[in-house]
Amino acid sequence: MPVPETQSPDQPLRKSAQRLRWFVDAFDQQVRNTEAQTGNAFSVDRGALAQVFAEWLKAFEAQKPTRDDDKPAYVGFAAGLMLRTLIKHKPVALISRPDSADDSNPAYFWPEGYLYVAFCLNVRGLVLETDFHSEQHPSDRLNESRTWWSFRENVEKDPSLAIAFLDLFAGDEPEWSMPELFRTGRAVRIAERFYARESLEPETS
Amino acid sequence: MIANQRKFSLLPDLNMPIRDALRGVASLADATEDMLEPAAKLLPEPLRSRFQHAMQALEQAGKRLIHAPIDMDQIRAAAEFATGSTADPSGVPAAARVIVYAWEHLNETSVEHRHLISETIVADRLSRLGRDSALTGCQNTAAIVLDLRQSSAIGLMPGLARGITDAEETEVDLALVAIAVWLASKRAENLVEEEKLLDLSMALVRALQTEAASALGNPGAFADFLSDTSSHL
């Protein structure tokens, strides 16, 4: 995903992304890209998009961490909050799709959901790369129709589960229990978990 | 007599009253067409069509004449004046022009009310507001909005029969707040982007309607609201 032209060169990307003008430009780009890649056509409700941004910003500000160590993990959490809000407010509607669309492909199984996930993953990856020199490695689960079926059914009942599903798609460890709460020190805990697993391996083999 | 002379502390741009008069013509034609619509239906053709065409032509002519374009220099000057970056009174005409332009732009795109704005009165109000160097940028902007809100710069066309609904009052407030948020935000690259930004400001303020309405009752809270919201536009 290219950086929207509205990004200011004198501030981190994550700061630009907290402006509605950047968000709308980036979302428009994602819509155009997804339409070109899938042949789907969408309509976007700008009022609902502004509502999404305003609600996301409140949720984002409410749990913003103060520790520098938490900031990369909070990028992932903030992207999950965005996915939750998009799913809740549904600013996009599918207008048409190709005649030959295969429903087992996530892009056609749930076109709007696919667009939202693509947008959130792309912004997440872009901010991690630009501001934290870190790479995102999306999971193969992103292409599994079974996972998408579960994703769609679960977030309809509880939109907060979108936060955990986005972590899953992004190749991170999801927090299925109370995913709407950001856990400080999460990056350290995940690292410790991997470290502990590796330490145990010689004993079990 | 002295008091009367001080009442108009700024000699308005000669075009301002003319533009205001044309705004009145456009609105009157629009309102007249609405009010006479039931009676117009009784007119036989071709009289009915001619009446409607005459009213629409009057309305369009008025709108065309008052929609003189603004430029980026005027927007920048208006923003500097609104945020107190300059106390130079030469910023008043630009600020009034830009505020009225923004008001009319929102009228055509995203708000639902029948209120007129007078560029002459806006300029007069802006010229009367004292500069307080102790105020922050958004405190200045808040003071301007709260003053305009209480003034006669925005109002219904005299003679219109229907009263003002609560929904219309809310729309007027939201439009004023959106203009303030827009002026206080980081400037865009060009006029097209500025208009887009103004529309986004309206959408954002509408999304924050409850917070905006609550903040309007307190100048300090309103300045904080403007500062926070404009930084995220």
* Helix count, DSSP H or I runs of 4 or more residues of chain B: 12
Using DSSP, what is the number of strands of chain A? Answer: 2
Helix content of chain B: 55-70%
Shape of chain A: globular
What is the count of β-strands of chain B?
Answer: 2
* Classification by helices and strands of chain A: mainly alpha
How many strands, which pairing sense, and closed or not: the largest β-sheet of chain A? Answer: 2 strands, antiparallel
Radius of gyration of chain B: 19 Å
**What is the alpha-carbon Rg of chain A in Å?**
17 Å
Question: Can you describe this structure?
Answer:
Chain A is mainly α. Chain A contains nine helices and two strands, in the order H-H-E-H-H-E-H-H-H-H-H. Chain A has a two-stranded antiparallel ribbon. Chain B has 233 residues and is mainly alpha-helical. Chain B folds into two domains: 13-68; 70-231, no CATH class. Chain B is built from twelve helices and two strands, in the order ααααααβααβαααα. Chain B has helices at residues 2-7, 15-35, 37-40, 47-66, 72-82, 91-109, 119-128, 137-150, 166-184, 191-207, 209-215, 219-231, and strands at 116-117, 154-155. A two-stranded antiparallel sheet of chain B has the order 1-2.
